[in-house]
Amino acid sequence: MSSQQRILPYTSVFIKLLKGPVEYVEKSTWEKLIQYKVELTSFLLQMGLSLVLDEQDGYAYIKHYPFEEDENPVSWIQRRSLTYEESVMLVLLREMMAEFEVGEATNRELIKKRREIKEYAELFFKENASRVKFLKEIDRLIDKAEENGFIDKTETSDLADEQKFRIKKIIKAKVSSEDLDHFYQQLVRYKEEKETNQPVQQEQQ
């Protein structure tokens, strides 16, 4: 193969990045990404893309550079739209990550059982008339978070609630500290409105 036909050494990394974020747990890909990060950044720039790399937390992804209004570029990156409930679950997972990083000094990864995620989420989602349907909806949101690449199942179990998930650090790039603050401001207002609208029970004579 001539030098003009030579495949770039970081081509495999580029292909993986097009499919989604790359993490340090993908050891061979991650090592190649770090090795060729300068060349890869320059290569992506030519296509209107930028590399977002967080070596400390161990994740990387690509995003589009902003284009002028009169330009209509081809989208290289797969985009996912989230429903309101899916967005709330994402914020809750991000909050679990924030609490973990403040209090945990030994483990690098945040591992939670499905049961633990559900118990945490129950505090924030409004329960409907049927508790069975309510819990099934939270299960669906957890499964959707896995499908969208924000959590990974690390251990299966005969009991679904005992399944273990790794909450990925890439979630920090999707939900910022400002997003968390905004969420809590909304949550406080919601609780205040709920308490204000709650009917007052009269004492029995």
TrEMBL record:
Pfam families: DUF4194. It comes from the Bacteria. This is DUF4194 domain-containing protein.
